[in-house]
Amino acid sequence: MEEKLVNNNLVKSYIYSSFFWLIIAPLIGFAAAIELNYPDVFSGLPIMSFSRLRIVHVNGVVFGWFTTAIFGLCFYIVPKLTGVKLFSERLAIFTLWLWNITIFIGVTLIALGINQGLEVAEFPILVDLSVTACFALILINLFGTIFKRKEKKLYVSLWYVMGAFVWTTMNYIMGNFINPYFVSGTNSAAMHGFYIHNVVGLWITPIGVAMVYYFLPVSVKSPLYSHRLSLIGFWTIAFLYPFVGTHHYIFSPIPDWVETLAIVYSMWLFIPVWTVVYNFFGTMKGKWKNLAGDPVVGFLIVGIIFYLITCFQGPTQALRSMQKMVHFTDWVVGHAHIAIFGTFTLWTYASIYYIWPKITGRELYSPVLTRWHFWLSVLGFSLMATSLTAAGLIQGSMLFNNEFFIKTFTAIKPYWLARTIGGLAMDIGMFIFVYNMYKTVRHGKVIN
C-alpha cells in the first residue's frame, strides 16, 4: 500500500466522484451528437434541446470530470513531492462534498434553462460563489502543504499546480462576477475572450502539464530531461497566455491593434509548447520500450502527440487568413475536442492508471480491458477529430464561396455521423475504464 503521506481513501473518493461525471457528461454529449444527425429526435422536450445539452456536456466535462479528477490527483502528488501529509484532510473531505453538490446544482439549473449566457460561465451567480469557494479551499490546502514541506526544492509540477490554482481562482472571479454584471459591449466580449481562453490556458493546460511532469518520469523510471527547460515553459505560459484571448474575436469591433497583439502572442505560444514536448520526449530517451506494455506511458505519449497537434492548430487558426476559413465551422469544435479529450483526458486516464494500484493495494483487474479502453479511446477519438476537422474545412470553403450556411449542413452530414460513431466508441471506452477500476478494487489481486 502507498505510504502514509497520501490519504488513499481521500484520493479514491475524488476519483470515484470524477467517474460519475465521466459517465454522465459524455453521454449527454452523445445525445447532442445524435440530435445533430436527427434534429427531431427529442422534439417537444426543452430540457433535451441541443443548446442545453451542449452546455451541460461542456460544464460536466470541464468541471465535473476533469477538474474533480485533478483535485484528487493533486492530493496524491503534492504530499509525495513535499514529503508531508496534506495540510487538512478534513478540509479536503468537506470540499469534495461541497464541490460535487455545487456542480450537480449548476448543471441541473443549466438543463432547466437558467444560466448567465456566457460560454463556460453559464452557472448562476450563487453556484459561482460556491465554485470559487471550492477553488479557494483547495488552494489553501495545497499551499498549506507546500509551505510546510520537507523537500526544499520545488519540483516543476508544484510550480504548475500553484500557478494553475492562483490564476484560475482570479480568472473565475473575473469571468463570472465582474464581466457579466459590470462590463458591457465590446469590452465585455474582449474580457470574455480573456476568461474563456484562460480556462484552458491557465487552468486545464498548466494543471494537465503538471500531471505529466510527475507521472511520466515515475512511470518510465527516468529523471526529468531538463528542469530548466520546464521552468522556461512555465514562465512563458504565465506571460503569454493572458494576452491571446481576443483571437476568439478577430474581425469584431474590438480594436485591430488588440486583435493583432492577440495573434502575435498566439504565435509565440509555440515557445512553451515546444519546451514542454521536447522535455517530455527527452525524458523518454532510452525508455521507448515502455510504450508497448504500459497503459500509463501509452496514454501519456498519445496525449502528447495530440497536444502538439492542438497547439499547432491554435496559433495558426488565430491568423486572420485562417480565421476567415474556419472560425464558424466544425474545425473549432474539433480543435476543442483535441485539447480536452485528445490531450488532457488521455493524460488524466494515464495518471489514474498509475495511482490506482498504489492507492487500492491491488493489481489492475484486467489488462485486456485496459487495452480495449486504450484503442477505443485512441481510434474512436481519431475518427471524431478527423471528421470534425474535415467537416470544418468543407464548411469553411463553402462559406468562403458565399454558400448559404444551411447548405453546409447537407454537405457535412456524413461527417457528423462519423463523429457520432467515434464518440460512441469513446463512450464505450469510458464505461470499460470505470468498470475496470471498480473491479480492481473489488477483485484485483492483492499487491504484497
Please provide a written account of the structure.
This protein is an all-alpha fold and 448 residues long. It has a single domain (8-443), classed as Up-down Bundle (Cytochrome C Oxidase, Chain A). Helices cover 79% and strands 0% of the residues. It has helices at 8-37, 50-82, 89-111, 125-147, 156-182, 185-220, 227-240, 256-268, 270-283, 290-293, 295-318, 320-326, 330-360, 367-400, 405-443. α2 (50-82) crosses α13 and α11 runs antiparallel to α13 (330-360). The N and C termini lie close together (8 Å). The relative contact order is 0.09.
What letter string, H or E per element, gives the SSE order? HHHHHHHHHHHHHHH
What general form does the structure show?
globular
Over all CA atoms, what is the radius of gyration? 21 Å
> Per CATH, what is the topology?
Cytochrome C Oxidase, Chain A
Main pleated-sheet profile: none
Structural class: mainly alpha
Name of the CATH homologous superfamily: Cytochrome c oxidase-like, subunit I domain
Q: How widely separated are the two ends? A: 8 Å
Q: What labels would you give this structure?
A:
Cytochrome C Oxidase, Chain A, 15 helices
Detail the topology: elements first, then pairings.
Elements: H1 8-37, H2 50-82, H3 89-111, H4 125-147, H5 156-182, H6 185-220, H7 227-240, H8 256-268, H9 270-283, H10 290-293, H11 295-318, H12 320-326, H13 330-360, H14 367-400, H15 405-443
Helix pairs in contact: 1-2, 1-3, 1-13, 1-15, 2-3, 2-4, 2-6, 2-13, 3-4, 4-5, 5-6, 5-7, 6-13, 7-9, 8-11, 9-11, 11-13, 11-14, 13-14, 14-15
